[in-house]
Amino acid sequence: MACMKPGDVLLLSGNEAIARGAWESDISVCTGYPGTPSTEILETITAEYQELYTEWSVNEKVALEVGIGAALAGARALVTMKHVGVNVAADPLFTSSYVGIKGGLVIVAADDPAMHSSQIEQDSRHYAVGAKLPMLEPSDSQEAKDFVKEAILLSEKYDTPVFLRTTTRISHSRSVVEIGEQSASTILKGFERDIQKYVMIPAFAGKRHVAVETRIKQMAQAANTLSLNRTELQDTSVGFITSGICYAYVREAFPDASVLKLGMVYPFPDDLIRDLCAKVKSVYVVEELDPHIELHVKSLGLEVHGKDVLPNVGEFDPDMIQRAVTGKSPAASISIPITIPNRPPSLCPGCPHCKVFSLLNRLGVYVTGDIGCYTLGALPPYSAIDTCIDMGASVTVAQGIEIAEGKNHRRNVVAVIGDSTFAHSGITGLLNAAYNQRNTLVIVLDNGTTAMTGMQPNPLSGETIRGNRTVSLDYLKLAQAIGISDENVRIVDAYNEKELEEAITDLLGKSGVSLLIAKGLCVILQKRKERPRHV
Amino acid sequence: MSKVTNVLLVGVGGQGIVLASDVLSLAALYAGHDVKTSEIHGMSQRGGSVFSHIRFGDKVCSPVIPEGRVDILVSLEEMETLRWLSYVNSDTRILFTKTRIHPPNGAGYPENIEEKIKKYFKNSITIDPGRIGKKTGNVKFMNTALLGMVSRFLDFPDEAWQRSLHEQVPDGTYEQNKAAFAVGKSLIPS
Description:
The complex is a heterodimer of chains A (about 525) and B (about 190).
Chain A: E1 9-13, H1 14-24, E2 29-32, H2 40-48, E3 53-56, H3 60-72, E4 77-82, H4 83-88, H5 90-99, E5 105-111, H6 125-131, E6 135-136, H7 141-158, E7 162-167, H8 168-171, E8 173-178, H9 195-198, H10 202-222, E9 230-232, E10 235-242, H11 244-253, E11 257-261, E12 264-266, H12 270-279, E13 282-286, H13 292-299, H14 318-326, H15 353-363, E14 366-368, H16 393-405, E15 413-418, H17 419-435, E16 441-446, H18 475-482, E17 489-493, H19 497-508, E18 514-519, H20 523-530
Parallel strand pairs in A: 2-3, 2-4, 4-5, 5-7, 6-7, 10-11, 10-13, 14-15, 15-16, 16-18, 17-18
Antiparallel strand pairs in A: 1-8, 6-12, 9-11
Chain B: E1 5-12, H1 17-30, E2 34-39, E3 49-57, E4 72-75, E5 93-97, H2 113-120, E6 124-127, H3 129-136, H4 142-151, H5 158-168, H6 174-186
Parallel strand pairs in B: 1-4, 4-5, 5-6
Antiparallel strand pairs in B: 1-3, 2-3
C-alpha cells in the first residue's frame, strides 16, 4: 500500500480502515492489548503508518492510561481493545470522562456477538451510558475510517474521550474505502498543569461531574443535527431504527423501508427518534445483543418492536430480520439428508501445551484455566480445564477454592496460565497468593508469544510490537521478589513429560506458593521463524 | 446490472481460503464493482472450518450472503461442500475439490458426497486435486487454480485478475500463481 494517495479506492477490513483513519486524523499515539476482533488495528498501523507511535501495552487498563496521558499532553491518541478488555480498562475509563482531554482521545471497543473468539458476549454500549461518553458505531469500512476523524473532532469539541464501537462483522468484513488526506492537529504538544481538571479528588471532581452532565446533555441536543445520524424516509408502513452492521442487514432485507441510522449510539437524538416514529406506522429497533436503543426509545413513551421479535443472543443476518418482521422466510434453501461432522478447533499438532494437558488429565487434578489457545485444553481429548473466567483468574480462582475447602483441601488444584495472560493479569494474583500465604501451584505455559490473537510479542518474549529487542520479565527474580522460595520454582521443557510430572508432583507436595514454567515455543511461531516473511 | 453476485469459498484452515478470497474480491474491485466480503478469523489456524463470503455488484449492502442466494460455491475440501447448505440453492454452481481432510476428533468421514452433489445440483464440477497438482507442479497453488476456473464464470477482464494476483500473492510467487491460474482457466471450456 506504499503508493496510496488521497482519492484511491481500496478494499479494506474495518480494522485496516480504522488504522487508515488514525493516520488521516493525525493521531500520533496508539496503544492497546491484543484481542479478537480488535488486534489488526495496531498491527496495521505498525506495518503501514510507521510514523505513528504504537505499543502493545501490558493490559487494557495500562493502554488506556497511557492514552489518557498522551491526550493530556496534547497528542491525538487511539486505544484499542476487545469488549472484555473494556472491563479491565473500566477504572481509568470512568475517570477519564471527568478529566477530559487536550488532544482527541478515541477508544475502540470491539464487541464479538456470537463469540467467534471470546469467552462471553458483552454489549460495550453500556459503558458509554455508564461513563457518560459518546459512542460512534460504523456500518462499513468507509465509515470505520471516517468515524475515527469524526470521533477526534467530537472529542476535541466537547473535551471528552469518545468511543468507537465495532463488532466482528465490521472489524473483519472488507468493503470499499476511498481514502483521504491527512488533516493535521493544531494542538501544541506538551503537558500543562491544570490541577482542578486533572487531579480527581472530591474537592475538584464535584465540579467536573457537573461538567460531564452538562456535556452529555449538549451532545444529546446536538445529536439531532449530527450528520452521522441520518433519517432515510421512504416507505412509511414499516421503519427501522438501527446502527452498525445491522444497518447493512436491514438495507439488504428492506431496501425500500424508512430507516433512522444512528452513527452515534450514545447519546441519543430524541427529536429524530420521535420524528421517525411519528411518520412511520410500525417501527422496529434492530440491534444485536442488548436492547440499548430500544429501551431508550421506549423511555420516550414510543411504541416500537425490538427484542419481542429478535433475540438478545448471537449475531443477526438479513434473513433473521426479514423473518422477524414479515414472518416469512425469504428463500427456500436446499435440504440434503447428510450429516457433516463438525471441526471443533483444537490445539495444533505438536503444540507445546499438549503434553501438559494430557499429564494434568492423567493426574486427575482440578485445573483452573485462563484465556488463550490453551483454553482448548478444556475439550477432548485433554478435558483438563475446570474453570475459565477472565484474564488472570486461573491464579486467583485456585486460591478461593483452597480457602473455601480449608482443612479439607487436598492440594489437588493447579492454575494454568499463558505467558501473555500472566503479564496481563496473572502477576497480581501470584503476589496475592504469596502475600496471603496460600499453597497455590501456578503453571505458566510459556510459548514465547500471544498465540491466540496471532503471535503478538509481550513482556515475556523480549520483543516490542516492532520486533525490536527489549527487556523480558525474569521469572526467577519475580518469584524471589514476591516471596516465593527458590525450591518452589521450576523451569521445565514443555515437551519433557517425565520432568513435567516430577515437577508437578513435587510442587504439589510443598507448602507455600509454587511456580512452574513450562517452556516450549508455539509451533506456528516456530514455522514463521524458519520461513522469514518477505519484505 | 443491479444484481449482486454471491461467491462462497469454503474449506479448512491452512488451505489458502483467505488468500483466494482476497484475490477474488480485489479482482472484483478492479473490474469496477462495489465489493463486500466477510470471513471469520481466529480459530482457522487451529483446524476449524473456514469460509469467506464475497459479494459484488453495483451496490452491496450486507457483507453476509442471504440464505439460498449463493451463485458460485467453491470448495477446497470434499465434505465442507455440504456444510453450508442454507446458503445455496439448486441453481448454485458448485466447484468442489475431492480433497479429504479428516476431522481431528475421529468423527469419521461421510460417504457418497460426490453422488449427492451430482444429484441435487445440476451445475457442479468435480475437481481432481492430483490432476491439477500434476499440471501446476505443486498442490500449494490449488486455490489459485480454482480461481482460474471461477474466472470462466465471471465477467472480470483478465487485467483485473492479474493485477489482483500480483498484489496479493507472496513476493516471488507471482509467476507460479499466474501459471496455476492459467491451468485452472484452461480446464473449463469457454
